[in-house]
Amino acid sequence: MAASSELAFFEEHERFVALVSELGALDNALPEDAARAKALVKEGADILDKYQEQSHLLDKHMESMAKPLMDRARDDLRAIRAAHVKKSSEAGSGFALQLLDAPVMHHCLTLAYLLCKTRGWKRVITFFPHEAADLEPCVAALLSLDSEGTTHWKSRYVLLLWLSVLVLAPFPVHTIDSGDLGPAAAALAAAAEGALSTVPTFGTGDPWGGGIVGTILCVCQGCLGSAGPVRDAAAACVGRLLTRPDLETSVLAEFIGWGVKVIEATCLSHARADPGLAERLASDGAEGDAEELTARQQASPSGWDTSAVDDSGAGTPVWSGAAAASAGADPAAASGAPAGGLDVFVVTGVLAAIVRAFKHGQRDSLADAAGEAFCRISQVAASEQGQLLRSSASLRRLLVKLSQRTGLVYLPPRVASWRYQRGQRSLLDNLRGAGPAAALPSRARDAEEPEADDDFDIEPVVEDVIDSLLTGLRDHDTIVRWSAAKGIGRVAGRLPREFADEVVEAVATLLDRAEGDGAWHGGCLALAELARRGLLLPARLSDVVPRVVSALQFDERRGATSVGSHVRDAACYVCWAFARAYSPSVMRPWVRPLAAALLCVALFDREVNCRRAAAAAFQESVGRQGADNFPHGIAILTAADYFSLGNRAHAFTHVARQVATFATYRGALLEHLVGVKLRHWDVDVRRLSARALAYLAPLQPEWAASDLLPRLTAETTSADLLVRHGATLAIAEVLLSLARLSNFQALIPYSVMHNIRAVVPRAEKAGADGWAANARLIRAGGVAPGDAVVHSRLGDGVLLFEAFERAQCLRAARIHDEEPSGEDIEDESPSDGTPGRALSKPTLRASPSSEANFAAPDVVFPRMVPLLSIPDPVYARGLAEGLSLAVGGLSESVVKCSTSTLAAWARAAGEPKGDRTGLETLLWNLLLLLRGRIAKVPAGSGGEQASAAGKPSRDSTIQPDSDEPASLASQATGFRVESRLVVPVLRTLHVLLAQGRAGEGSAKDGRWAREAIPLIRYRVMRSKDPVRVMSASDVLLAMVGLRQPIGAAALRTVLDFLAHPFPKVRRITGERLFSTLMIFDDLFKTGAQPETSDHGQVSSGAGAEEAVPGGERPASWIQALREADPSETAVIGFFGCDPDGAMAILSSTAWDGDEADVVAARDVLYAMLGVAAPAARVGALRSDGERWGYPSQDSSTATAEGADSYLALVREVGY
Questions:
Q1: How far apart are the C-alpha atoms of 876 and 878, rounded to whole Å?
Q2: Which of 23, 200, 868, 953 is least surrounded by Cβ atoms within 10 Å, i.e. has the fewest?
Q3: How many whole angstroms separate alpha carbon 1086 and alpha carbon 1134?
Q4: 202, 214 in Cβ contact below 8 A?
Q5: DSSP secondary structure letter of residue 708
Q6: Are 1029 and 1023 spatial neighbours (Cβ–Cβ below 8 Å)?
Q7: Residues 653 and 682 in one domain
Q8: How does DSSP assign 60-81, residue by residue?
Q9: In this predicted model, what pLDDT tens digit does every residue of 462-504 receive, in sequence order?
């Protein structure tokens, strides 16, 4: 059985109950008990955190946890209340309430809050005490809490929830009001501008005599502006209090009117605070709207009575709308709002309180106020002043709730007689196959059948409500769409059949390609609600089911990703609702498309939640609809369960193969893979889809050979890169799968195989994604690279074998996540005489116990580097490119592993008995990559002529013993190199050269090195990339230790880098040259053969001192050099003159400093190191700038022609 992290029951129940009991026994007066209570709450919080996602497991034990906590809090509050009453009676007058200081009680309330947070307050408050005697102690506790502190906000939250239970006492409130809270209420009214009064305050007075109702409202209104959960608790308390039978006729309408004024004033105040919006409002005449708003508030008869105030000033603060309206013309002042005190939290709290009142109030009491409130708030939300209401998802959700509850106020509550009723439902009978026969008949009233309860008028406001709900279905936040969907279901259930059918039609139109993903998601949620309630009649299924099937495949591309997983998840919910709502006979015509679509999502969806949701809907369908509608349903559910679908690769391959064994669903699965998933935006999904086809193709091989392969071959020419890539991968995987069949050769027609062989040259033009697929295709289809070399060419003259070489390179093997495993390289693979196959089998074959993970660098490189010994030019070039891209890549793990493996192989190859031929072949092929692979075609030549360098020969992979007619540097002028290859190739050359004198080549004259130096210089001569230049410097420095004149030629080019226009290049070159001189110190001091200068003279062997004017090195040798004759410094010394002096100059010169000083120091190094320096270059910084391909700042004379000349380049290097 698969392991699961889900919990089965409340494991810590006994411990939690024990800590609750211990907490209830602690004493408030003891400090140690307070500390122990804090520790117990912390332990309880850790226990409850484990059940945040499975809170339903607490339901069975909720009473044993919540009731003791609230009982202890109730006992403490009663004791505190009794002490307060006693002190008041002894004082002879009202005694002010003290701050509530009971630490243990606060910890009990904190633990009760954690229960509400985990399970939800609606479930927890059912276990709160509900005795009427607790009403005043609870209100007194709320008044005693520190209004300016935030320490006990959790206690305030729980007390407000408890108060929402206590206010439901089934008798008039004034009968349980002792009047002892009068002084505290007066103090609260005096502090109305404090922290608890962020919303418009009530006036003074008490029309009900007792005053406790006004006190509760004053406490709650101070909490409606809170930013935390206290606001929701206050709204719940207000909603239940005002909908009491003795208050809803006198207070409810007044509170709703006050709340609407607060919302209007807040929105207008917010609009005025926005400079841009205020300017638009002024230009649009919104100030007149503000005056109209103020006049409407002043004319309103609504208001809290302020006349009932006793002589002592004691009383309960209550709102007086008329009095506040006369405060001034400003709507904010008319609402009693403090200046700047209104914000989004206030609007959220007030609107939540109104929505709660609409939920609990009676229709008759709300009939007058609901319509006006809905119209006014909707009007504000739709105007420019309502930007505040539209900017918050929570506020838009409350607006949707207000809309649906306004509609329910104007529609009589009833169970629609026209709704679909399924009849008896039995899972056992369905699974036995007797469901349709044994069940009671379902019924849906015919259209012609009259309905006795449908004869009532629909208020015009209901149409506005439905329009608001339909708009909410398009909202871009899920919580708003979900609330709107539930509202659609509730309102449609009270409408006549004709009106409800129009609502269903409007919802169905949301599932249209012209709509966004939000409309699709909201439409699916609404359809599920309508179906679940029986409001989606069977006659509508013919229009709805195709839309739902489309929603199951909804995946809209957005940039580099896509949206649509939430739509597919909601579509699965619709299918789940269909299975529960309709009888098998009704669903039978639609079972096949729904079942196929659900299985495609369950097996092949990218997201795990969608796969599991589709599996749950399919399971519900099998159970509710029976085996007749869903053949093989139980077997499919056994294979495609919750856990097996958790792994995407497992679902695509193994689970899909088990499901596809049933022919009923096989065709839909194959079509979905080919038509949808192979062109998916995610490359991993395309690869998995190709593998899935390989698993499914042997189940229907004739179809795969005659239909699938031709279709995939045609798609390889698609203009869409994703389609081409997916089709190429699929061809390779299907061929690999079919090749294991005994009749493979006879199965695939010759014409199909011929078209498959033509896929690779077409993929050459398809981009980099095609190369990984080509690597699989070549090996799978038995396409020998040599065949393509003989028979095919590309249009611009580059031979096709280069495409195969690139496809075979290590990069393709490295990128592909499922490269050849052991079973792919067995003898059963097609034998076509491909060069190197005998060597590649033991090299690539995985270990007997497990398959090789070719995604791991430490696995792939030890297997691929030995392939450099394959004596065939077809593979050598591709391997060289792949290795260079790995060694010069950006991934640290790949670079480290590839470098170490290549270095070890190079050291072994350089030994006397090593594979020196393979090493030299690799070096020559790296130079060929540096030369370039594509010839430059002159304009107008039509691709028939190459540049002056000519076309490469058919066997253009350079061999060490071949006689190359022209230098690579001369060929480079006619070839275009890929810039991404230059730095990796240079870094690879540095790795190889650092292992010894590998660059001398097999020829005694060191022809490889003589070809490499001018070619490397040519490739960096005009480069503005410092990394490329420094990589070239590393290679040349590694060649300094080679035999003469190779070392001297390399050193001359390095010295040229010291005068490079980029300061960073000069500095790093100087540092690395210093290190090189230290390494080859002995070589410099031994002396070497004389060199010939550019003037044809042999140097006299003068030392470094003779190279400096005067024979001595002055203190300021740079200044002395500036004053000397430049021609005297253009001498050529012997190799090994003064390395110590050169290192001193290198270490003392700021190579990234003044350019004139840098050039002067560089010129001295020529003589000190015995390197020939062209006289035209000495002391001339301008020439160096032009020499590197940058325009001169001082002269308009162009020297680019000379720089581009191959003759000038060779002379410059010293040949």
A1: 6
A2: 953
A3: 10
A4: yes
A5: I
A6: yes
A7: no
A8: GGHHHHHHHHHHHHHHHHHHHH
A9: 999 999 999 999 999 999 999 999 999 999 999 999 999 999 9
Interacting residues of 12 by C-beta distance below 8 A, sequence separation 6+: 47, 50
> What global pTM score does this model have?
0.67
Written as six digits, the tokens of 637 are: 């559910």
Backbone angles phi, psi at 1194, to 5 degrees: -110, -25
Identify the pLDDT of residue 678: 95
Q: Report the b/e string of 395-412 with b at 16+ CB within 10 A.
A: bbbbbbbbbbbbbbbbbe
Contacts with 912 (C-beta within 8 Å, 6 or more apart), sequence order = none
pLDDT digits 0-9 by tens, 917-955? 888 888 888 888 888 765 544 444 433 333 333 333 333
Residue 725 sits in which domain range? Answer: 676-816
Q: Is the previous residue joined to 1045 through a cis bond, with omega within 30 degrees of 0?
A: yes
CA atoms within 13 A on the CB side of 782: 15
Closest CA to 486 of 465, 464, 469, 467: 469
Long-range contacts of 713-722 (CB under 8 A, 24+ apart): 713/752, 713/755, 713/756, 713/759, 715/678, 716/759, 716/762, 716/763, 716/766, 717/762, 720/679, 721/766, 721/767, 721/769, 722/679, 722/680, 722/681, 722/686
Inter-residue contact 901 to 861 (CB < 8 Å): yes
Predicted local confidence at residue 1161, as pLDDT: 84
Instruction: Give the per-residue pLDDT at 40.
Output: 95
- Helix, strand and coil percent figures for the chain, each rounded to 5: 65, 0, 35
What radius of gyration, in Å, describes the C-alpha atoms of the chain?
43
Cβ neighbours of residue 142 closer than 8 Å, sequence gap 6 or more: 156, 159, 160, 163, 219
CB atoms within 10 A of CB 740: 13
Beta-bridge mates of residue 557 = 562
Q: Which residue has the tokens 């599991």?
A: 612
Residue 826 lies in a domain: no
Q: Report residue 922 as tokens.
A: 């690799």
Q: One-letter amino acid identity for 590?
A: W
Report the C-alpha dihedral over residues 686, 692, 693, 694, rounded to 10 degrees. Answer: 120
Is there a contact between 76 and 103 (Cβ–Cβ < 8 Å)? no
Matching residue, tokens 């240079």:
986
605/571 Cα distance (integer angstroms) = 13
Nearest to 928 by CA among 985, 1007, 992, 1000: 985
Pair 114, 252 in one domain? no
Q: Do 574 and 592 belong to one domain?
A: no
Same-domain status, 778 and 881: no
CA distance 672 to 600: 7
Number of domains the chain is built from? 7
Give, to the nearest 10 degrees, the angle between helix 344-360 and helix 363-382. 150
What backbone torsions phi and psi does residue 856 show, to the nearest 5 degrees?
-95, 125
Structure confidence at residue 966 (pLDDT):
52
Whether 1119 maps to a domain, the answer reads yes
Query: For residue 925, which of 886, 963, 874 has the smallest C-alpha distance?
Result: 874
| CB burial of residue 837 (10 Å; 0-12, 13-18, 19+) | middle
Q: Is 45 in the same domain as 105?
A: yes
**Same structural domain, 401 and 330:** yes
The answer to whether the CB of 1049 falls within 8 A of the CB of 965 is no
- Low-confidence stretches of the chain (pLDDT < 70) are 1-7, 88-99, 146-149, 180-210, 274-342, 423-456, 761-855, 872-874, 933-976, 996-1006, 1043, 1081-1137, 1174-1215
